[in-house]
Amino acid sequence: MADIRLSFKEMCERFDVTPRTLRYYEYIELLQPEREGRARFYGPREIERMILILRGRKWGVSARRHPPMAADL
Asked: What is the DSSP letter of 67?
């Protein structure tokens, strides 16, 4: 997984989230994609964080309500 880089669209498709959701996670600084011009690319770190975010969401954990925990992702 070290060489994986997903585009914004690929992240949305792979994790079945809306573009709005993905932008929200960036806005609250849970995800910090690499930027090349206007394009965003998500590397292994962001992919792992997204897995943890969605796992927490499944169990009802709000990253917004638990910022210390979210910072450790």
From this structure: H
